[in-house]
Specification:
Layout (H helix, E strand, L loop, with lengths): L3 E11 L2 E12 L3 E5 L6 H8 L7 E6 L2 E2 L4 H5 L2 E4 L11 H12 L3 H10 L15 H14 L4 E5 L7 H16 L3 E5 L11 E4 L2
Parallel strand pairs: 3-8, 3-9, 6-7, 7-8
Antiparallel strand pairs: 1-2, 1-4, 4-5
Length: 204
């Protein structure tokens, strides 16, 4: 199935400052879009608007020609969002977090264990999530991403706090997702890590 995300004349403010001014672009099945720019340029703010977490001052975000706010829960059925906030319950272990999410999202314990091993987290999966290092927490987020079956990935600085091996695993996973009829929008300070880019949105 082909999907399309359309951003029309998006304008966003942070407090009284306009950080995104009248930006439009479209991304479709099989495409990778990068959002680049210096700190404070609005990359995360734009991703949050595309994820439906904040309302734009002006402009529209449409999924398959329908405003995402028409049925936001339906939109979320198609969306995976990975941000600086990892979204794991800090007092639970990484494994318990993923098992709980698996019960909700339809992936089984065998898939979870294989993914944890793939990201070299087997020896850490029983620790409370709060006790993990920054890199381990980031890799834990990638285990969740690899288990998701949703077509649209929104990733905010996904390569930060990752060593070269984990970065390579992530990039391979992104391109496999795109090959399998997914789409991905990435906010990044490291555009040089990516190839076969469909479009680049440069913020200043």
């Amino acid at each position: 199935m082909s999907n399309q995300l359309t951003i029309n004349n998006l304008t966003l403010f942070r407090e009284d400052n306009c950080v995104i001014n009248d930006i439009s672009f479209t991304t479709s099945t099989g495409e990778l879009t990068l959002i680049t720019g210096p700190n404070g340029s609005g990359k995360t703010t734009m991703l949050r608007a595309i994820a439906g977490l904040i309302d734009p001052e002006m402009g529209k975000v449409c999924w398959n020609d329908e405003l995402i706010t028409t049925d936001i829960q339906k939109y979320y059925e198609h969306l995976t969002w990975i941000s600086h906030q990892h979204g794991f319950k800090s007092n639970l272990s990484m494994l318990d977090n993923l098992i709980f999410e698996g019960a909700l999202n339809g992936y089984d314990d065998t898939e979870i264990e294989a993914t944890i091993q793939n990201f070299s987290l087997t020896n850490h999966c029983h620790k409370p999530f709060v006790k993990l290092s920054a890199g381990q927490k980031k890799r834990a987020s990638l285990t969740r991403l690899s288990l998701e079956k949703k077509p649209l990935w929104l990733l905010d600085e996904p390569t930060s706090n990752l060593d070269r091996l984990a970065q390579s695993q992530l990039i391979e996973m992104i391109y496999l997702h795109i090959k399998n009829n997914g789409m991905c929008i990435i906010a990044t300070h490291q555009p040089e890590l990516f190839q076969n880019i469909s479009s680049v949105i440069k913020l200043s």
